[in-house]
Design a protein that fits this description.
The structure is a homodimer. The first copy, chain A, is an all-alpha fold. Chain A has helices spanning 3-22, 29-36, 40-46, 50-73, 79-88, 109-137, 145-160, 167-181, 191-194. The first copy, chain A, folds into two domains: 1-47, Homeodomain-like (Arc Repressor Mutant, subunit A, Orthogonal Bundle); 56-195, Tetracycline Repressor, domain 2 (Orthogonal Bundle). Chain A binds a DNA duplex through helix 1 and helix 3.
Chain lengths: 196, 196
DNA sequence: TCCTTTTTCGACTATTGGTCGGTTTTTAAG
DNA sequence: CTTAAAAACCGACCAATAGTCGAAAAAGGA
């Protein structure tokens, strides 16, 4: 009765590895079952479809990211650093599986989008807490926190994810982050150091 | 020698209609050739692949959007209105083919992304001109125009595309647009009227 | 042991994007 | 008009792929 659970975890791990390294589209169910050494029927005993597998794999990833974010939440660092720390941790599995050259960016839009979508929803509340902390401390000053946090995530994603950003992109990002949260000019300048 | 060109345009039109109404993924090459009344070989005489068809279809759409944007560029309306006019025209084929309920949003990520990507590149220069015009007029005041314009497009897309936005989303969007371009508070308030 | 439930198997199906050799139609030159 | 090359077209065929299904093996009690 628990052998099944182990099997499922095993399949999830294999699928995770293959999805991340070769992309969701470029991984066939046959690939997965070959790697796992099982038959087609067994795979579909555990998953309703290939997409459901992706959904569960993403769930795993999200959980990990969220936990990392919550970790930062209680860390003894200044609020602006917390913000940036959480936001920059949103890049899906950067150190995890940077196998090969271009694997997470080009055609893997489906997975990428699904991750981003669910990540946003997960991280908004966490990030909102940090912003509220900053407001209490007087570092930030703004209303509509959740909406602003969402926008922060969006512009961060677009600026840094899968794309060559210039110094000017960074400058605008810093400027807008400060204005988004109502921080004093210069508050977020330290971002420049972190990136490069 | 021009019969071929007509055929190709016809196929492009059919593909466009089907991609938009049923989604790229949910449209098979067989669907297209059946609708067109031609054989498989003929289709592949005109297109290297299904994806190339999508690419060309998107090209058509982009051209239309870009022309509409350029139209607004020379229209006799205040600069802020121009900005909003162009930005809100970016939603791909809203009035064109709103067939069925959820057709452009759910799983059509691939097409959606490709459109967005190429649209951004096309519209940035046009929108930048408008912003420069606004700067000359004294309505706006900012540097790094292209980067800011890009960000404007991004936040606009995220706020209004495929998602339920609240009054607070709009408030934040207006606020950030003004700050992004260095406009006086209130300059962009008219957006509220346009939307609703 | 015997019956039930869980797990596994792999042959089979349907759909899909794409290929290929050959046939018909157009075009234009002689 | 004849004819040969070029353009356009055809549809059978192929390979890959997600997903199905009935049955067989394992595992678990009673």
């Amino acid at each position: 009765m628990k052998k099944g659970e182990r099997r499922k975890q095993e399949l999830l791990q294999i699928a995770y590895r293959m999805f991340v390294s070769r992309g969701y589209e470029n991984t066939s169910v046959d690939d997965i079952i070959e790697e796992a050494g099982i038959a087609k029927g067994t795979y579909y005993y555990y998953f309703r479809s290939k997409e459901q597998t992706l959904e569960e794999v993403i769930g795993m990833m999200i959980d990990k990211e969220a936990e990392a974010a919550r970790q930062i939440l209680t860390a003894p660092v200044p609020v602006p650093q917390k913000i940036v720390g959480i936001v920059t941790s949103l890049r899906p599995a950067p150190e995890e599986q940077p196998i090969e050259g271009a694997l997470m960016q080009p055609e893997n839009i489906i997975m990428h989008n699904k991750i981003r979508q669910r990540l946003v929803e997960t991280v908004i509340p966490i990030l909102s807490e940090v912003v509220e902390e900053g407001i209490r401390e007087g570092v930030f000053s703004c209303d509509n926190i959740r909406e602003r946090v969402r926008m922060l995530i969006v512009i961060s994603n677009d600026t840094f994810d899968e794309r060559n950003y210039t110094d000017r992109d960074i400058a605008v990002f810093i400027d807008m982050t400060e204005k988004l949260l109502g921080a004093e000019p210069g508050t977020m300048d330290f971002i420049r150091e972190l990136i490069r």
